[in-house]
Each structure stands twice: as C-alpha cells, then as structure tokens.
Amino acid sequence: MRRTSGPRVSKDELLGHAARLESGARRRWVTQVLNFAVANSGSAGESLSRAQMHLLGFPAPLLQANFRAGGHFIARTDFFWPQFKLIGEFDGDAKYLRDEYLGDQTSRQAVLAEKKREDKLRAAGFSVVRWDWATASDAARLGAVLRNAGLPNSGTRAKRTL
User: Would 3 be classed as within a structural domain?
Assistant: First the structure.
C-alpha cells in the first residue's frame, strides 16, 4: 500500500532505517538511492532525466539555476552545466496544455513566453537543449540529444548504479 499523506520523513530518517536493513546489499543500494535523491528537482520528468544522465555517465548538472542579465531575472532552468555553458530543459506537454500550469495565459502565450525566455538565455551566451517525456524515457535518445548539444559522457551505463 502506498502512503499518500502523513508527516514528512527526512533523508536522515530514511538513511537510519536503511542502516537497519538485514541485507548488506539492500543497505548499500538503498543508501545509494537516498544519497542520489535531491529535493530541488522540479518534476518527475526532471528526476527521470537526471537519473538517465547519471547512468549514461554525463557530468552532474546544477538544478534549478537562476540566470540574471543586467541586474534582471531572466530564468530559472531545469539543468545547467556551467563549464559547457549548456542549459537543459525538460518539458512535459502539460506545461503548455493544462489550465493549472497555464494560469491566465493561453497555450500560444505560454509557448511565445518560453521562446522569448530561451532567446534571452541564448543572447546571454548559453546554449539551450530541450527534451520531452519520450526522450527522457529512452536513455539512448536522451544520450544522443545531450551529446549533440556538446555534453561529453563516459558512455558507461552498465557500470554506473543508483
């Protein structure tokens, strides 16, 4: 049964429970997963993307990076690799189609606003690469998208674990 409500549980509490698991292999696996987990991922799609990046041997990105130009806020991005001046954006369709995400904008306005936001990031000297659920769900496809954007990887999926 899946818990849908109740008090929050801290990472330290979960690590404490993991330390009490009988199986050493399970203790190590759960501890690895918990140590990889972060609170600042913006969505399930971003989390899936980050896990795929890790498994594919890409460098770890900064998450939810803020960008400013001329003292003004430009954007908060999903992924950022400063050494490559590369920004990665995961976009689910809901961002442009669901009323709860659109607020008082139409889909057309949301798409145009996103285009202008990306133009500002490019004008500030960054490259921007985007992908969706289908790409995030397919490791080979996401790997190709990131490599084509100039992000190097070790390509050793089988050796990396969560």
Answer: no
CA distances 70 to 64, 120, 121, Å, are: 20, 11, 12
Query: What own/partner pairs with CB < 8 Å and gap ≥ 24 does 153-160 have?
Result: 153/56, 153/57, 153/58, 153/59, 154/57, 155/56, 155/57, 156/57, 157/55, 157/56, 157/57, 160/54, 160/55, 160/56, 160/57
Spell out, as residue ranges, where the chain has pLDDT lower than 50.
Answer: 1, 158-159
DSSP H or E run through 77: strand 72-81
Report pLDDT digits (tens) over 43-78: 788 889 999 999 999 999 999 999 998 888 989 999
Q: What is the CA radius of gyration of the chain?
A: 18
CA gap 48, 37 in Å, rounded: 11
In this structure, are 139 and 94 located in the same domain?
A: yes
Domain span at 88: 41-151
